[in-house]
Amino acid sequence: MNFKKQLKEGVITNNPILVQQLGMCATMAITTSLFNGVGMGLSVLIILTCCNVAVSAVRKFIPDQIRLAIFVVIIAGFVTIVDLLLQAFIPALSESLGVFIPLIVVNCIIIGRAEAFCQKNPVGPSFVDGITQGLGYTVVLIVMCLIREFLGSGRFGGGLIDVTEGFRFTLDGTGSGVQLFDSQYGASILTLPVGGFLTLGFIFAAMQAALKKAARNKAEYGDAEEEEDEDE
In the predicted model, is pLDDT for residue 217 greater than 80? Predict the structure, then answer.
């Protein structure tokens, strides 16, 4: 188990959204405030990690013919648990995210990791995979929320940060956020549904350009090192 390698894959080289292109529907829909982004990201991280561990633990006992059905049942169980916990302890987040919490059951990220990784690996690596892939998903959500909030309305931390009576974090979704400039000067289109498409498109393009540049640099340096070894 190589934690550093798995972390790099989850956040950068095999990011579930920017590289695998999974779970993009919810990503574009809920990234209107930092409150939603952090809440959805952590929910997926917890569910993904728990499902990874459960699938890995029972992988040798699941017949291939009903493998996907068992995966869906396991995922649905953990999604229900998280959904009920949110309703009980953070009702504002549950109401804000709405149907997107139950829809985690069919989130391609979770099913994809169960199929591609967990059914082939033991519990330890599967646990780390859940953490790192969930972290990569959460990071993208937070970045999108920050961009859409800041450029769209001049605000930071809507719903999660309250500055009316001093700086504090809140879980009731009523945080005013930090207003950095007047909202009339913001690109309000980014706060609309189409803003999710635009923001994700720009982030996706930047990520792909960075990965291609890194690959070219690696190839060039690799060739140079091989030539040096041959000269020696």
Answer: yes
Res 226 pLDDT > 80: no
Q: How many helices (H) and strands (E) does the chain have?
A: 8, 4
Angle at which helix 108-116 crosses helix 34-58, to 10 degrees, equals 30
Rounded Cα distance, 203 and 51, in Å: 28
Q: How far apart are the first and last CA of the chain?
A: 35
CB 28 within 8 A of CB 147: no
Q: Taking 80 as the threshold, does the pLDDT of residue 229 lie above it? A: no
| Predicted pLDDT at 231 | 53
- Give the tens place of pLDDT for each residue, 21-50: 888 888 888 998 899 999 999 999 999 999
Sign of the torsion angle spanned by Cα atoms 93, 20, 123, 65: positive
Residue 193 pLDDT: 85
CA neighbor of 83 nearest in space, from 55, 27, 51, 44? 44
Sign of CA dihedral 129, 131, 136, 140: positive
